[in-house]
Amino acid sequence: MDVYSGAAVKDGRSVGRGGGHCQVIRLKGEELTSQCLITMEVEQGSLTMQSLGTKGAASRDMAITGVTDVYRNARGIARFWDIAMPDERVRLEILR
C-alpha cells in the first residue's frame, strides 16, 4: 500500500491539503493495478476521489465520489499527473 499526503498549492500559495492511499488489487507480470482513494480539503469544502489505475501510467483520472460544503451537489473528474513525485499536479473538473 502506498500512502500520500501533502499541500494543495495554486499559483505558488497553499490552498489546502490532501492525502490518500493506493492499495494493490491485481498483479499480472510487471503490470500492477491499484485502487486509490484521495481526499483534498480546501477552504470551501472537501472532495474525495477514487479510481483504479496502473502503476507507471502518465496520468490517472479519478471520479469525484464525495463532496462537502459548497461542493455538496457537485460531481466531476480529477486528473493527476506525476503521482507520488515532487511535482505532482491535479486538475479538477467540477460540475455543479
Total strand segments:
7
N/C terminus separation? 33 Å
- How much helicity do the residues have? under 10%
Do you know the CATH topology? AOC barrel-like
Unreliable stretches: none
Major sheet: order of its strands? 1-2-3-4-5-6-7
The CATH homologous superfamily is called: Allene oxide cyclase-like
Kindly report the average pLDDT value.
90
Portion in strands: over 45%
CATH architecture title: Beta Barrel
Oligomer: single chain
**Structure annotation, total helices:** 0
SSE run: EEEEEEE
CATH class: Mainly Beta
Count structural domains: 1
Helix/strand layout:
Blueprint: E1 2-10, E2 13-28, E3 31-42, E4 45-54, E5 59-67, E6 75-81, E7 89-95
Antiparallel strand pairs: 1-2, 2-3, 3-4, 4-5, 5-6, 6-7
In short:
This protein is mainly beta. Helices cover 0% and strands 73% of the residues.
3D architecture notes:
This protein is mainly beta and 96 residues long. The protein has one domain: Allene oxide cyclase-like (AOC barrel-like). The protein is 0% helix and 73% strand. It has no helices and 7 strands. The chain has strands at 2-10, 13-28, 31-42, 45-54, 59-67, 75-81, 89-95. It has a 7-stranded antiparallel beta sheet with strand order 1-2-3-4-5-6-7, with no helix packed on it. A hairpin with a 7-residue loop joins β5 and β6. The N and C termini lie far apart (33 Å). The relative contact order is 0.17.
Summarize this structure as a short list of keywords or feature phrases:
seven-stranded antiparallel beta sheet; 7 strands; 0% helix; AOC barrel-like; 96 residues; mainly beta
